[in-house]
Amino acid sequence: MNQTHDDAVRAGGDGLEEHSTSPDLWLRVGAERLSLVRYVFLVQIEDGIPTAAQRSALEYSDAVLIGWPDADAPDVVAVDERQEAEIVAHVRIMEEYIGKFRESEREGNIDDMTDILIRISERVAEIRKIFQPDFPLPTFAEIRRVVQEEWDEDMGKIDPQSSGSASEVEQETRLENEQRDAGEQS
């Protein structure tokens, strides 16, 4: 039977009863929920230049989702009851964070949304590790370090004297005025 998250919710109240669904459902639910939250986050920050923290949160969610396996993939293991209970615990925490993410979105609090996206990604990463124990997932700290280095490098390339900034426009205007004044005096 191909169950959806909505079917699971109807079957088990909050949809998270350990034995109300196929464990494989949680593999799909984790990916779908993180994908949706990631998309909402991306839409929220797309108008500006993302900070290093925002870029790191996106990169981490991407790393968790990249190459997401189907339940019947050869490297996906069957889970036992203990692992299923652990998965359900991660899904519960993830769902709590999603509620907090929605509230932060309503408030327009991008910083909180950034932190919560990281927490949701961590929960989904834990779910993936249970189903796919040999898949190499980077930690958020590893991604943050690389993104911060890239951010610092990018910021170091910005030259306020040649970036089309207000100071450049002011300097160009001053030179034009000096040239005009020199031409009028000749």
Q: Structural class of the helix and strand makeup?
A: mainly alpha
Query: Based on CA inertia axes, which overall geometry fits?
Result: elongated
Question: Helices and strands, in N-to-C order?
Answer: HHHHHHH
* Average residue-wise pLDDT: 83
Helical fraction equals over 70%
The fraction of residues in strands falls at under 5%
Number of helices: 7
Termini separation? 91 Å
| Rounded Rg | 24 Å
Report the uncertain regions: 1-13
Protein name: Phosphoribosylglycinamide synthetase
Biased composition (Basic and acidic residues): 171-186
Region (Disordered): 1-20, 152-186
Organism: Bifidobacterium primatium
Defining key terms:
single chain; 186 residues; mainly alpha
What layout of secondary structure does this protein have?
Elements: H1 5-12, H2 23-45, H3 52-65, H4 81-107, H5 110-131, H6 140-156, H7 166-185
Question: Concise description?
Answer:
With 186 residues, the protein is mainly alpha-helical.
Describe the protein's architecture and organization.
With 186 residues, the chain is mainly alpha-helical. The chain has a domain at 23-142. Helices cover 70% and strands 0% of the residues. The chain is built from seven helices and no strands. The chain has helices at residues 5-12, 23-45, 52-65, 81-107, 110-131, 140-156, 166-185. It is elongated, with a radius of gyration of 24 Å. Residues 1-13 have low confidence and may be disordered.
